[in-house]
Design goal:
By secondary structure, this protein is mainly α. It has one domain (about 20-115). It contains four helices and no strands. The protein has helices spanning about 1-35, 50-55, 70-85, 105-115. The radius of gyration is 16 Å and the shape is globular.
């Protein structure tokens, strides 16, 4: 029975993952365009999207490599998101909401589409 349930939800999980990536990529693309960041199209390429994320936050592109280091990446993502909030003239402490499930899908939309 559980195999049947797993087969039913596996395509739904895959579809949700693709939809989640598309949402985050679209938000990152819009933020990059609004902040005049070079190569905003990189937002649509997995892993390469770390480059515009770092550049938006005013950090060097090579900070993207720091995302590959366990535990360090938790600190780096908060710094990048915090600085991105500040770059978009929003309070930086709102970046802490990225740690909350569901809120971490709403916050990028606020950054991208709310002026």
């Amino acid at each position: 029975m559980s195999l049947m349930v797993g087969m039913l939800f596996s395509p739904l999980t895959g579809l949700a993952s693709v939809a989640g990536f598309a949402w985050i990529a679209a938000c990152l693309y819009v933020i990059a365009k609004k902040t005049n960041t070079e190569n905003p199209w990189l937002a649509w390429i997995p892993v390469a999207n770390l480059v515009p994320a770092c550049l938006i936050a005013g950090r060097p592109w090579w900070w993207g490599f720091l995302f590959a280091i366990s535990l360090v990446n938790l600190i780096i993502i908060e710094i990048v998101v915090w600085k991105t909030f500040e770059r978009r003239n929003k309070p930086g402490w709102l970046a802490l909401l990225m740690l909350v499930p569901v809120a971490n899908m709403v916050i990028p939309g606020i950054l991208a589409f709310v002026d």
